[in-house]
Amino acid sequence: MPTPTNNKSGGVMDNGHEPAEMKYLRSIDMTSKDSITDATTANEWAAKKFVWVPDEHEGFVRGQVRQEQMDGQLLVDLENGKRVTIHKDDTQRVNPPKFSKIEDMSELTCLNDASVLYNLKERYYSG
Questions:
Q1: Are 23 and 67 in contact (CB under 8 A)?
Q2: Where is each Myosin motor domain found (predicted)?
């Protein structure tokens, strides 16, 4: 095992090439197809309004808002085929698809219970 040494910037190098702190940082490959957002898909998603609706059996179900009424009620088509009317304060916002399976959930634009649970399910569900 190499002996740690000091580099010119003051950081300790554990592998002879980079400071020891670098092992905790990950680089982003900007040429990866996963990091490049398809503009057409992003625009189509932005044109629709998605929300998380509380569900007795699944916790939350994603749905698309079809109509907003003046009293704050939303008419929402759920992914499970149901159509519900619910007050907008009882829903939670859905993150754009580019945040699916994200490792650092603090990067979510809509950091709420439903989005965290969905992200964990997407990352770790095996059945």
A1: no
A2: 100-127
What letter represents residue 22's amino acid? M
Does the domain at 49-127 match CATH 2.160.20.60? Answer given as no
Give the whole-angstrom CA distance, residue 60 versus residue 92: 9
Residue whose C-alpha is closest to residue 103's, from 125, 122, 89: 122
Instruction: Give φ, ψ of 118 to 5 degrees.
Output: -65, -45
**Residue-range domain boundaries for the chain:** 49-127
- Model-level pTM? 0.61
Highest mean pLDDT, choosing among 35-44, 49-58, 118-127: 49-58
Residue at 26: amino acid letter: R
Residue 121 backbone dihedrals phi, psi, to 5 degrees: -65, -45
